Amino acid sequence: MAAIFMIGDGLLGLVQTGRHTDLWKDRALGAEYAVRPFVGRPGRRRLYALAQIAAGLALAARQKR
């Protein structure tokens, strides 16, 4: 589940950078603090999205049957 979330969230952050950050800015049960470094910095969010996707793929590759 964690890998799926990381990959999906990363893809949304990569493709819809501004919109995705805006969704988490207000009243997000504490997540607004996590997105604060990305507000107004789409390049930073895209870089984080790529890292998120890579980590999710690595985690998924380690899963055993």
From TrEMBL:
This is Uncharacterized protein. It comes from Sphingomonas endophytica.
